Amino acid sequence: MRAFVVTAPNTGHIEEVAKPVAKAGEVVVKIARVGICGTDVEFFNGSMPYLHDGQASYPIRLGHEFTGTVIEAGPNVDQSWIGKRVIGDVMMGCGKCSRCLDNRQHTCQDRYEIGIRNGFNGALAEEMSIETRFLFQLPDVITEELGALVEPGANAWRVADAAQAKPGKRILIWGTGTIGLMSAQFCIAMGAEVHMIGIDPKTFPLALEVGAKSANTEVQPIDGGYHVVIDCTFDPSIPAKALEVVEPGGRVVLIGVDSNPAPINSRLLVFRDITVVGILSASPGLQQSIDYMAAGKVKLEKLVGATIGLSEVLDAFNGKRPASAGPGPKILVDPSR
Ligand SMILES: [Zn+2]
Ligand SMILES: [Zn+2]
Which of 85, 96, 222, 223 gives a 20 to 30 Å CA spacing to 107? Predict the structure, then answer.
């Protein structure tokens, strides 16, 4: 089968590789769609911190925002999985340590991350193997396109949950990329008022279309201030600014990360009585993401700019969008093409 392999910084190609075989506890999933995200681009260009601290190394088969259909079930696996449409948890804990047993398997020291950590092959390929304990079955109303958005959507659900979004809350979101726009949708679906800041005004029409009250390049003061500030950028200067902008007693939610540390003044946390929450992964929000999408409470498909084949992935990693791409920031890949 074909898989996209990154062999060195800024170097990748399609390789003919062995088809996966389902071992005990595993199934093989035929990939229908896989999203390309900022993490993949960081792996491609070599800036991803895991490449520098031993958690990942080249060659690497990327792809973690996937959906597909189970085509093979391994020994001891319920054969009724075959034919089911699924997504999988990217973070795969050992299942035995205290963190895993405490439902924090996304923080397991020994975890694999699909297409990211400890050499687990990703979904930028025709097929992929995965243990059934990490699978979520999709209802029919979740299309293949939506299925590939469940994982980033779950990160955004967790952001909105950490922001305690609800009617009466005024929330400022820094960053109008995929996670910013998805987080806006979940915050709005929970009843909050959302304002956005981005560096590219071309993204603002989409921000307003998904329901943001305003979109600007600089923070605009509003009556009563912002109860919550959310950082969905790659800019290490934003967390410090968020602590200054948020209302005293408010919350700051951090999901964006740069390869450089983002220093903050902890005295501000104390004097302004701020709660800061960091979000690492989608894991604890996957079912909620599926449920919100299935109920039509969020329209994440608005963020898809184009769907490409494996042969166009290299261009996408190099920042070249297809000529026909729409305004949405998210590029999906159909590996059968
Ligand atoms: Zn991602
Ligand atoms: Zn564990």
Answer: 85
- Give residue limits of the domains in the chain: 2-137+299-333, 155-278
The pLDDT score that the predictor gives to residue 260 is 86
Backbone angles phi, psi at 313, to 5 degrees: -65, -40
Q: Is the Cα dihedral 318, 255, 305, 13 positive or negative?
A: positive
| 2-137+299-333 and 155-278 share one fold | no
Residue with tokens 């092959």: 121
Superfamily (CATH) of domain 2-137+299-333 = Medium-chain alcohol dehydrogenases, catalytic domain (3.90.180.10)
CA of 130 to the centre of ligand 2 (A): 16
**pLDDT tens digits, residue range 275-298?**
999 999 999 999 999 999 999 999
In the structure, ligand 2 is a single-atom ion and the residues with CB under 5 Å from it are: 93-94, 97, 100, 108
Q: Given CATH 3.40.50.10400, say whether it is the number of domain 155-278.
A: no
Could you tell me which residues come within 8 angstroms of residue 265 by beta carbon, excluding any fewer than 6 positions away?
A: 240, 243
Residue 50's SS3 state is: helix
Per-residue pLDDT band at 258 (split at 50, 70, 90)? confident
Q: What is the pLDDT of residues 201-248, one digit of tens each?
A: 999 999 999 999 999 999 999 999 999 999 999 999 999 999 999 999
Residues at Cβ < 5 Å from ligand 1 ion: 37, 39, 65
Torsion of CA 161, 163, 169, 171, to 10 degrees: -120
Mean pLDDT, the chain, as a whole number? 96
Ligand closest to 39 (CA) is 1
Q: pTM for the complete prediction?
A: 0.96
